Request: fold
Amino acid sequence: MRKTALITGGSRGIGRAIALRLAKSGFDIWLAYKSNHEAAQKVKSEIEGMSAGCELVPFDVSNYDETEAALASRVENFAPDVLVYNSGIARDNLMVWMTREEWDSVLSTNLDGFYNVTRAVLFSMLRAKKGRIVIVSSTSGQIGQAGQVNYSASKAGLIGAARALAREVGKKNILVNVVAPGFIETEMTKHLPKEQVLPLIPVNRIGTPDDVASVVDFLCTEKNMYVHGQVIGINGGLSM
Reply:
């Protein structure tokens, strides 16, 4: 019997790579995304081309009511085997110039969204007494980054939330872990000057979404699993 994975931010970049990797590993996918229907449909077609099931679930994770409306009926009598919280936006600015909108929008998507989504599905996992939750944070949440006070705060908050949640639900056979990507080739990082970034990375290359997806896949599929409440850096040695 195939398992089911709910992946937020699944229409592009890291989320897309995770969705495809888990589909290859035998999961049917609930592909959650905000508004890019064309991109989501392309991912759905790719997943179905791998003989896996894919349902598109569009909603804004930062909106509590939208999240409840999108997920409550789905999990009423069914628990997804995996939740990957991958939603995230960046609104970079120096703190002295940062607007309230730049702060609020990043925290509401990256951190409040985690609460909205996880709360919506957690009871079903507790009832099933099984599940795996993987949260996509960032190296910026581990070491901070100038110009990203809002982003770093939200990603550090995810790490704290995950560790606390891991203590709450481990006895129910629900494993909670965090992956913290560094510089990954996505739309969010395409504006970064690679010639300045590469010297900071010991392996001397920018990461790919597949680099992240492979670790998430391990956390979601490995049978002999004793990793719980951990933060796994995927950054080529940028943060050691």
